[in-house]
UniProtKB/TrEMBL annotation:
The gene is Crydash_1. Its cofactor is FAD. This is CRYD protein. Residues 5-96 form the Cryptochrome/DNA photolyase FAD-binding domain. Residues 90-137 are annotated as: Disordered. GO terms for molecular function: damaged DNA binding; deoxyribodipyrimidine photo-lyase activity; FAD binding. Gene3D superfamilies: DNA Cyclobutane Dipyrimidine Photolyase, subunit A, domain 3. Residues 102-120 have a biased composition (Low complexity). Residues 121-137 have a biased composition (Basic and acidic residues). FAD binds at residues 6-8. Binds 1 FAD per subunit. InterPro entries: Crypto/Photolyase_FAD-like_sf, Cryptochr/Photolyase_FAD-bd, Cryptochrome/DNA_photolyase_1.
Amino acid sequence: FVLKVDYDVCSNYGNWLYNAGIGNDPRDSRKFNMIKQGLDYDGNGDYIRLWVPELQGIKGADIHTPWALSSAALSQAGVTLGKTYPEPVVTAPEWSRHIPQRPGGSPHPRGRRGPAQAPPQHKDRGIDFYFSRKKDA
């Protein structure tokens, strides 16, 4: 018997909508990046290995992007895309910076290849900017 004591209907449904890309966010072009979140909060892929046994043979953070691995690496892990594990339906362009691109095939720890770039700051933007109809860049 499991009793979930932190259930919050609004928060949970709001988070599901946001993750699906249809949630309400006042920031322009804001999307939930599943690859980045996986690398940030499950860098070694232990959670995925627990719930997705088909990917157990993939080592380290490569588990977050199995479709980006070489056919040799997939074969060694016992994964055949489209047979033992589905091919991705889509690959979002914003995932590309978190997909392994270094020799050796493993991503930089926490999914970054250097210091994170801070978004440009707009000091003259108060809270009214986000709720007004006119958006000056």
